[in-house]
Structure formats: structure tokens, C-alpha cells
Design a protein that fits this description.
The chain has 25 helices and ten strands. Helix 9 packs across helix 10 and helix 17 packs antiparallel against helix 18. It is flat, with a radius of gyration of 29 Å.
């Protein structure tokens, strides 16, 4: 008879059974366990984090610790070999008092009303009745509203555990009633050590370089790394004498050979278009995935830039010695400005993949753009509408001042020139007008930047910063932003120039992948609403309602207004 445990996928087989098994979440595990030991548990938990960091596993461990009838060891749980009935049933997802609900499939208010109705009754045979709601962000607004009262004053024997990858979609009124724990991405080193341990237990033959590649491909998700390891071991299972190498993993994941990528980029740097396209063709024949290819290119550009700016690359970045040597050789003669251009064009190509049908042609166009990016830059300089004159270096045709407004490159060239122009404004080392530069002013926050734009009468820039730009991160010398479709096409160039003039140094303006960001104007409106709601709960307003029952508070002034 087959052993069911052996047939389990590794992600389920090695699911955390005690709090110490939670990889990379040691502080959170200790905090939750200590609260359970002293009996100071919240009515509702909110577990957030990317996929595969242990949200659902943590929720089950909390349920086990709250209902465990033995509590024999330091983990707040009974011993695995002599586990209690509650722990066994919760682990097998068949405990009558621990109910798991996937909010992605049960989003409506009716589902929540049934849940609330059942929550009124005491647990059948456990200490607590526990509801684990996964993908909680998928619940509808009405469903959340229905939960509010129960979360505010829940029965003493009831606990809620919400798990979500998108906490921003959870209403603020719910967040304030939950104890929140943010499960972080797990470090590459911890993931590497974890999957290496599992591979040794499973008696799999896989090299350390291959394991490092799996750890990197998981992007901080423990579950993803174990699933990838499972695929690798299945690949090796029919060849017991074979040791899986990183080249095998690359083929399995559709990743390009790093040495070939470095050679391809070296051809690009040298302007060898035919050589770069030949390598690309070989990679496509090997089953190259377009997005993985471009992401690998971004990683290499980053490593080249790091090598130029910070010196030799540390080994903790999980790069093999051979790769380090190739990067060291290929980075000679490069400059940070060209790498900045390559980075931006690569990002744009990744976006283009979402709207084109032929990915291979897109990649070929991308490489041709990279190999000719310097010539495009030079042509842009020749045709630039600068203060020094339009078309100054053109030998034949001259562009008159009357045609200055009508000078618009068309098609692909237009987009290329626009991108190059924006990137140049970020990477250029010398200003066009040094007299405007003021090196005494320091911008401490995004709000300071808006006020400075207003002070310098840059009304259009101020409007974009307030209404069309969504701030992800702000620090001295660097801004991470997202934006809406109303943003002015020259915003990046204008902001970069203005920041240099105001601060005396070049700022890095990068595009954030963060979702659900809000503009400064939207944030201001939300803060106003929160302040208004708070004032409506004040004793002063309640006293006023006694005298004027029909009155309503529609606006309130804040200290910064």
C-alpha cells in the first residue's frame, strides 16, 4: 500500500506544524505565542504578506495553540507524536469549531450573515470557535459592514483570523479592530538553507548553485521555493544517478543561461547587433520566456551599475564565482549613464509585452534599440529644441522658429526620443543653466516639494504632483512614484530639472510597481473625512445635536489649513 505522506506535494508535506517551523517570521511567531501563553489574545488577527510567506499556516497554528488541550512543549502546542484531538483535527482541516472560509469564492454579505449567525453559539467541544477567512480583501463592502458589530463586541469564545495579500483593500474600520501582523519576504539565505534541508531529507541530488537559483526564483516566498524544489526533484526522479545543475533549473523555469546573457549584453555594449541577435535566437530555441529574459537583463544591469558605483560585488547576493568573474570583465568601460538608458528601455519593453502578440519580434526590436541607443541619443541632441538653436548641427535643412511648435517626430521614433529625453534628464551630469542651481535648500518630504513648486510659481508641476502623481516612497535624492493617465508627458523631465535647480544635485525618479496608491490630493481628502468622522463622535458635536437635532457637520478646518 502506498504511503500517503510520500504522495503529498512537498509544500503540504513540509507545512509548518509548530511556530518554530515558520521560516523568516520568528519575531511574529514569538509575539503571537507569548500572547497566547499569558492569555492576552485579540478578538481578531489580521495576517498580511505576499503569497507563500505563511499566512494560512500561521492562522492554523494560532487556532491550534488556542484550542490545544495539552500544551506540553515550549511552542504552546502538544508534541507531534502524542498530539491532542484538537490539534490533529485542525491540522487535517476537519475541526468542527475551526472553520476556514475562502473570501474569494464567498464574497457576498449573505455568506457573512450566515457566519455571524453561527458565531452566536458557543463552541461544540473546543475552547474557542475560530473563523479563518483567507483572501479577506475580496470581501464586499457590505460584507465588511456586516462584520463590524461582531468584531467590535465579539462573544468571549469567538476569534477571527483574516489573511490577505492586499491590506490596503481592507476598510480602515476593520483594520482598527484587528491586531495586525505583517509577514515579510523571507531572505534568500533562509530559503536556500530551508530547501537544502528538505532536499537532503528527500534524498534528492541537486547542486547548491541550482538551489540558489530556486531560492532567487521564489522571490521571498517559502511555498514557491518548495514547489520549485518539488518540480526539480520530480525531474530528477527517473535519473537517480544524475545531479541537478543550475543549467537544468534554468531550462525548467524558462530562464536564460547567465553567461549567455552577459555575452549578449557585451555585444550590445560594443554595438555588435548581429552577435546579440544570434545569441537571442539561440535562447529562443532553448525555450526562453520573454519576461524572465527581460527581468534577468534588469538584474544584470543592476549588477553592472553596482559594480561601477560600489566596487566588487559581495557573494551574499547569491551569485556564483564564475558569474562574478564574467560581470567583472563585462563591466569594464561601462558608464552609469548608458546603463540608466538601458534600464529605462528594458522597463518600457516589459510594458510593451502586455500589448503585443509576437514576443520574439518585440525582443529583437528591443535589442536593436539597445545597440543603437547611443546613435539615437546623438540624433536627439542634433535635433533638440535647445536654447542654443534648433537643428544647429544639421548640414542641410534648418528648422525655423515658426516650425518649432510643429516639430514632432512620429511613430516609434517619437516614443524612443521621448524616452531618451526623459532618461537624459535623469542621467545628465551637468545642468544647462548653472546660474539657476541653488545648493542650499533641502527637501525633507513630498509635501515640501509641492510647497517649493508653488513658491517657485511652477503651477503646472505643482498640479501634477498633487493630482496626478501617486507617491510610493520619498527620501533625499530619490522618489518612487506611480501616476495616472492625466500626467503631463514632460513631467519627469521638468521635475528632474527643477529638483536639480532647487537642490544642486541629481535626483533618481523611478517608477514603483506598488498598487492602490493615492495622490496627495486623495490622501488629503481621506484625512479630512477621517477628521470629520472623528469630530462627529466628539462630545461637543453630540451636545450640539441635542439642541439642533437636524444639524450635520459637513466641513471642519484643520491646523494645516
Amino acid at each position: 500500500m502506498l504511503d500517503e505522506n510520500k504522495l503529498k506535494v512537498l509544500a503540504l508535506k513540509y507545512r509548518p506544524k509548530i511556530f518554530k517551523d515558520l521560516i523568516g517570521q520568528e519575531i511574529i511567531a514569538e509575539t503571537i505565542l507569548n500572547a497566547i501563553k499569558i492569555g492576552k489574545t485579540p478578538n481578531a488577527y489580521l495576517l498580511t504578506g505576499i503569497r507563500g510567506t505563511g499566512k494560512t499556516s500561521t492562522a492554523r497554528l494560532i487556532a491550534k495553540a488556542l484550542n490545544c488541550s495539552k500544551n506540553k512543549n515550549e511552542n504552546g502546542l502538544c508534541n507531534e507524536k502524542d498530539s491532542c484531538e484538537h490539534c490533529r483535527e485542525i491540522e487535517n482541516s476537519n475541526h468542527i469549531d475551526v472553520l476556514e472560509q475562502d473570501a474569494a469564492t464567498a464574497t457576498g454579505v449573505d455568506n457573512i450573515r450566515d457566519l455571524i449567525e453561527n458565531s452566536k453559539y458557543n463552541p461544540t467541544n473546543a475552547k474557542y470557535k475560530i473563523y479563518i477567512i483567507d483572501e479577506a480583501h475580496a470581501l464586499s463592502r457590505n460584507a465588511w459592514q456586516a462584520l463590524l458589530k461582531t468584531l467590535e463586541e465579539p462573544p468571549s469564545k469567538l476569534r477571527f483570523i483574516f489573511a490577505t495579500t492586499e491590506p490596503r483593500k481592507v476598510p480602515v474600520t476593520i483594520l482598527s479592530r484587528c491586531q495586525r501582523f505583517d509577514l515579510r519576504r523571507v531572505s534568500l539565505e533562509k530559503i536556500f538553507n530551508h530547501i537544502k534541508k528538505i532536499s537532503e531529507i528527500e534524498k534528492g541530488k541537486i547542486s547548491d548553485d541550482a538551489l540558489r537559483l530556486l531560492a532567487r526564483a521564489s522571490e521571498g516566498s517559502v511555498r514557491d521555493s518548495i514547489s520549485l524544489l518539488d518540480r526539480s526533484l520530480v525531474f530528477q526522479s527517473l535519473k537517480p544517478d544524475k545531479t541537478i545543475q543550475d543549467s537544468d533549473v534554468r531550462k525548467m523555469l524558462g530562464l536564460a543561461d547567465k553567461s549567455k546573457l552577459i555575452k549578449l549584453l557585451k555585444d550590445v555594449f560594443e554595438g555588435n547587433e548581429n552577435g546579440a541577435l544570434k545569441i537571442l535566437k539561440e535562447l529562443i530555441e532553448e525555450g526562453l520566456d520573454a519576461k524572465n529574459f527581460l527581468n534577468d537583463i534588469l538584474e544584470l544591469i543592476y549588477l553592472f551599475s553596482r559594480r561601477i558605483n560600489l566596487g566588487p560585488i559581495e557573494k551574499e547576493l547569491f551569485i556564483s564565482d564564475s558569474e562574478l568573474q564574467l560581470i567583472e570583465e563585462a563591466s569594464k568601460g561601462l558608464n552609469i549613464q548608458d546603463l540608466g538608458l538601458f534600464w529605462q528601455l528594458t522597463l518600457k519593453t516589459i510594458e510593451d509585452l502586455n500589448i503585443v502578440s509576437n514576443e520574439n519580434v518585440t525582443l529583437e526590436m528591443y535589442l536593436m534599440q539597445l545597440t543603437h541607443v547611443k546613435s539615437i541619443e546623438e540624433k536627439q541632441g542634433e535635433t533638440s529644441l535647445s536654447d542654443n538653436g534648433i537643428g544647429k548641427n544639421l548640414p542641410e535643412e534648418k528648422i525655423s522658429p515658426d516650425n518649432k511648435k510643429n516639430f514632432k517626430p512620429s511613430g516609434i521614433a517619437k516614443d524612443q526620443l521621448k524616452n531618451i529625453d526623459q532618461i537624459k534628464s535623469l542621467t545628465k551630469s551637468e545642468p544647462t543653466n548653472k546660474s539657476k542651481v541653488s545648493q542650499s535648500f533641502k527637501i525633507g518630504s513630498f509635501e515640501d516639494l509641492i510647497k517649493l513648486a508653488e513658491k517657485n510659481k511652477e503651477i503646472e508641476l505643482k498640479y501634477d504632483l498633487e493630482r496626478n502623481v501617486k507617491l510610493a516612497k520619498f527620501e533625499d535624492g530619490k522618489i518612487d512614484i506611480n501616476f495616472n493617465e492625466n500626467l503631463n508627458r514632460n513631467f519627469i523631465k521638468k521635475l528632474s530639472q527643477s529638483l536639480y535647480e532647487w537642490t544642486g544635485k541629481r535626483w533618481i525618479i523611478s517608477l514603483s510597481k506598488s498598487e492602490n496608491l493615492r495622490t496627495f490630493h486623495q490622501e488629503k481628502i481621506e484625512k479630512k473625512k477621517e477628521f470629520l468622522n472623528k469630530e462627529k463622535e466628539s462630545e461637543t458635536f453630540k451636545e450640539m445635536l441635542k439642541n439642533f437635532p437636524d444639524a450635520d457637520l459637513i466641513d471642519v478646518g484643520t491646523e494645516d489649513e
